[in-house]
Amino acid sequence: MKLETERLVLRRWEEGDAENLYRYASDPELGPIAGWPPHRSLEESREVIRKVLNGPEAYAVCLKEDGQAIGAIELKLNGHTDMTERDDECEMGYWLGKPFWGRGIMPEAVRAMLRHAFQDCGMQKVWIGYYEGNDKSRRVQEKCGFRFQWKSEQVDVPLMGEQRTGYVSVMTKEDWLKREAGE
Hints:
Strands 1-2-3-4-5-6-8-7 form an eight-stranded mixed β-sheet, sandwiched between helices. The chain has one domain (3-180): Aminopeptidase (3-Layer(aba) Sandwich), CATH 3.40.630.30. It is an alpha+beta fold. The chain has six helices and eight strands, in the order E-E-H-H-H-E-E-E-H-E-H-E-E-H. The longest helix is centred in the middle third of the chain and has 16 residues, at 105-120. Helix 1 (18-25) crosses helix 3. Strand 5 (89-96), helix 4 (105-120) and strand 6 (125-131) form a beta-alpha-beta unit.
């Protein structure tokens, strides 16, 4: 499966993406704010492609102009998220390499994934979250129309070995349809 927008191609991760993954995921300003430590080696990035970015709805975010992976976006389906136990709901997660921040790339990717979630995957709700201090992620969620639901204190962040404050928002299919219709 491949999704396209005006500027982007969202496609399955390939082992050949490991160098780009390492280039961006080794940045100490990227992973920790999202809840994962910076990648320490190219081999670690290869392992992440094989074992983490391999879900049925995990995509590399690529610019159409060169096809290079610059970020990730995923719909985490039932069994792979703690936000819902329903088969018609999922959690969205994403990150983008720092050189591409501030260009509207992630909102464009999120809108494409919402369309895919509701039209192709039969979802009724898409949940999404961010940790306190991740203002870029919060802004993407606001721009794309997610509605804030709750704040949780002392959320475990296992990959970082700490606890944080988390914020959870949702987009329902009904809300998405209204946005698409321009209401």
